[in-house]
C-alpha cells in the first residue's frame, strides 16, 4: 500500500470519528410522551410541589440521586405538563405554568444524564438548553424556546429571571415549593429581593466605584429596561436605601462576576 493510500485511510478514519462525536453532541434529544393521563383536563402543580419538598433543601440544592431512583411522582407530573392547555388559563396561571415547567424540565434533563457535574457537560456549546426537547403543552420545546420564546417574550417581567433555575450554583436557588398563581407576585418579589441582596450576586465596592453583579444582568440587559432606565435603576428598587441612593447618585461601572456552572447537587 502506498503512503498516499495510507494517509487517505487515516484521514477517513479520523473524519468518521469526528463525525460520530459531532453527531453525539449536536443531535437533538427528544423526550416524547404518548400516553395521555386519565384526567389530563384537571391540571395541578401539586405533584411537583411534593417532589420539590422531598428532594430540594433550604439552599436550593437537589438530591438528584434520590430523585432519579424514585421518579414515579415526578414522571407523573411531566405527563401532566405534556398534555396541558395553558392557553386556557389566566395570565398569572400561565406564567406560573411556564415557570414550573421550565424548572421541572431542567431537573428532567439533569436526571436523564445523571451523574454529571454540570449541565454544560451534557452537550457542547450550551446544548443542554438548545438541543434537548421536551413535550409540554402538546408541543415539543427546548428550554431556550420556553425561556426566550415564551416567558421573556410573552410575559415581559424581568423578575422571572430570579425564579428560573438552570441547575447551577450561580443560578437563583430552586425553591422548595412549586409556584402558584395566587402567590406568584409575592414570590417574584421575594426571589428578586433575595437574589439582589445576596453579595454572591450583587456587591458594591465604593472605593473603586464598581458594582459587581451576576452575569444575568449582562446577558439580559435589555429586559431590565422594561419599566426601568436600566440595570442600575432596577437594582435600586431592591437594594437597601443607602446602597440604592449611592447607585443612583454615583457614576459607577459594572463588573460581572464569574458564573459557576457547577451542578446544584446536594452531593457536590
Overview of the structural elements:
The protein has 268 residues and is mainly alpha-helical. It has 2 domains: 26-186, no CATH class; 195-256, no CATH class. It contains 11 helices and 6 strands. The strands form 2 sheets. Strands 1-2-3 form a 3-stranded mixed sheet. Strands 4-5-6 form a 3-stranded mixed sheet. A hairpin with a 2-residue loop joins strand 2 and strand 3. Helix 2 (46-55) runs antiparallel to helix 4 (72-83) and helix 5 runs antiparallel to helix 7. Residues 16-26 have low confidence and may be disordered.
Shape: globular
Radius of gyration: 22 Å
Helix content: 40-55%
The proportion of residues in beta strands is 5-15%
Question: What average pLDDT do the residues reach?
Answer: 89
Separate helix tally: 11
How many E strands?
A: 6
Distance between the termini: 53 Å
Give the low-pLDDT segments: 16-26
Structural class by sheet pairing and helices: mainly alpha
Number of discrete domains: 2
Question: Could you give the order of the helices and strands?
Answer: HEHHHHHEEHHEEHHHE
**Biggest sheet layout:** 3 strands, mixed
**Widest β-sheet, arrangement of strands:** 1-2-3
Q: Quick recap of the structure?
A:
By secondary structure, the protein is mainly α.
Key features of this structure:
3-stranded mixed beta sheet, mainly alpha, 2 domains, 9% strand, single chain, 268 residues
Give the helices and strands, then pairings.
Blueprint lengths: L2 H24 L2 E3 L14 H10 L8 H6 L2 H12 L7 H23 L13 H4 L1 E5 L2 E4 H13 L28 H13 L5 E4 L4 E4 L2 H4 L11 H6 L4 H9 L3 E4 L12
Parallel strand pairs: 1-2, 5-6
Antiparallel strand pairs: 2-3, 4-5
Amino acid at each position: 500500500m502506498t503512503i498516499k493510500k495510507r494517509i487517505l485511510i487515516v484521514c477517513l478514519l479520523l473524519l468518521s470519528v469526528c463525525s460520530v462525536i459531532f453527531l453525539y453532541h449536536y443531535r437533538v434529544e427528544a423526550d416524547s410522551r404518548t400516553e395521555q393521563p386519565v384526567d389530563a383536563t384537571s391540571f395541578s402543580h401539586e405533584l411537583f410541589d411534593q417532589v420539590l419538598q422531598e428532594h430540594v433543601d433550604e439552599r436550593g440544592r437537589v438530591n438528584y440521586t434520590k430523585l432519579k431512583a424514585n421518579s414515579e411522582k415526578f414522571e407523573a407530573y411531566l405527563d401532566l405538563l405534556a398534555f396541558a392547555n395553558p392557553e386556557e388559563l389566566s395570565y398569572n396561571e400561565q406564567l406560573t405554568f411556564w415557570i414550573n415547567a421550565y424548572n421541572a424540565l431542567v431537573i428532567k434533563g439533569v436526571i436523564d444524564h445523571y451523574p454529571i457535574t454540570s449541565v454544560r457537560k451534557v452537550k457542547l456549546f450550551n446544548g443542554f438548553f438548545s438541543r434537548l426537547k421536551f413535550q409540554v403543552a402538546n408541543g415539543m420545546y427546548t428550554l431556550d424556546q420556553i425561556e426566550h420564546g415564551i416567558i421573556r417574550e410573552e410575559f415581559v417581567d424581568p423578575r422571572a429571571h430570579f425564579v428560573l433555575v438552570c441547575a447551577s450554583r450561580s443560578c437563583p436557588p430552586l425553591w422548595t415549593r412549586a409556584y402558584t398563581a395566587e402567590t406568584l407576585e409575592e414570590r417574584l418579589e421575594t426571589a428578586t429581593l433575595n437574589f439582589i441582596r445576596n453579595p454572591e450576586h450583587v456587591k458594591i465596592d465604593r472605593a473603586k466605584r464598581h458594582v459587581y453583579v451576576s452575569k444575568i444582568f449582562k446577558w439580559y440587559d435589555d429586559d431590565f429596561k422594561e419599566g426601568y432606565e436600566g440595570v442600575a435603576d432596577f437594582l435600586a428598587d431592591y437594594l437597601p436605601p443607602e446602597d440604592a441612593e449611592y447607585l443612583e447618585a454615583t457614576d459607577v461601572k459594572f463588573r460581572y462576576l464569574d458564573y459557576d456552572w457547577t451542578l446544584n447537587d446536594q452531593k457536590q
